[in-house]
Amino acid sequence: MRQASTRLLFYFAILFIFSCSEKTVHSDTTNPYIVRDNVISKIKNLSQNQILVCAHRAYHKFVPENSLASIKQAIEAKIDIIEVDVNTTKDGILVLMHDNEIDRTTNGKGYISNYTYAELQQFSLTFNGEITNHKIPTLNQVLSLSKDKIILNLDIKRVDVSKLHQQLKVYQMQNAVFSYIWDKRKIEKILAIDSSYAVLPEVSNITEMEYYLENVASKLQHLNEKSFTSENMSWAKENDILVFMNILWKPDEEFIQNNTKKVDAILALHPAIIQTDHPKKVLTYLKSKNLHN
């Protein structure tokens, strides 16, 4: 009898712990950027009745691109997603830098791979040709700043994807981000490490679209000018594919001059995400069209 009572108490204790843990995980239902399942589910839910905005190289119209300040401004502006570029220093530190050379974005010169992270601290990021007090940030700083505040699109440059995945795991963010990866071999490598990792492959035709549908668990594809057609968008929706589309360059340039024809044509096909260099203005425009909450 004493054994049965002890066993019963043990079962009640386990049920209590489990119920408490469930409440802890789901306690904050007001923050749309906390990813409880995975980033694909989150994007799917958020894009059901709106088009999400991705800020290219973060919010870089007032501060340097790929800086911590640009990420903070995107968060403050309530942008849905930011795209940032991950690169690697001489001593293997993952940092934000679009180019393999630091000439364009800092007051230094040379390849980023020729400098240790400590050596890079002697340089400052530039903005419109002027030297600022902003420094090249590490990926660790970016993950700490953005966690549960905004969705990250990590554009993979010269990066060991196994090291990237390890860093994401430290922050428990390996399923909370997605990555644009141009190199098909790197897509295969990171999926070999984690088959559920959300990759964003760029596709130029239906053959490539079908290949990634069959071989990648995350249903997210970056259509480009060649593949972004009404037929392919119909196929994507039939196959539950979330479409990422750029309005960068010409559409963006015309948009800020109040010529919205190209942007409107893209919006008419209703991709899940559009990427722009003018995220706040695009967000305001989407709201005016009832295409964003």
Describe the overall structure.
This protein is α/β, with parallel strands linked by helices and 293 residues long. It has twelve helices and twelve strands. It has helices spanning 2-25, 39-46, 68-76, 117-120, 139-146, 161-170, 184-193, 206-215, 230-238, 250-255, 261-268, 279-288, and strands spanning 52-56, 81-88, 94-96, 126-127, 130-131, 151-156, 177-180, 198-200, 202-203, 220-223, 242-246, 273-276. Strands 1, 2, 3, 6, 7, 8, 9, 10, 11 and 12 form a ten-stranded mixed beta sheet that branches. A two-stranded antiparallel ribbon has the order 4-5. Strand 7, helix 7 and strand 8 (198-200) form a beta-alpha-beta unit. Helix 3 (68-76) packs parallel to helix 5. It is globular and about 50 Å long. It starts with a helix and ends in a 5-residue tail after the last helix. The model is unreliable at 1-29 (pLDDT under 50).
Note the gap between the termini. Answer: 60 Å
Structural class: alpha/beta
Largest sheet: 10 strands, mixed
Which radius of gyration do the C-alpha atoms yield? 21 Å
Order of secondary-structure elements = HHEHEEHEEHEHEHEEHEHEHHEH
| Structure annotation, total helices | 12
Please state roughly what percent of the residues sit in beta strands, choosing from under 5%, 5-15%, 15-25%, 25-35%, 35-45% or over 45%.
15-25%
Number of strands: 12
Level of helix content?
Answer: 25-40%
Describe the global form.
globular
Overall pLDDT:
90
Concise overview:
The protein is of the alpha/beta class and 293 residues long.
What tags apply to this protein structure?
10-stranded mixed β-sheet; alpha/beta; two-stranded antiparallel ribbon; disordered N terminus; 293 residues
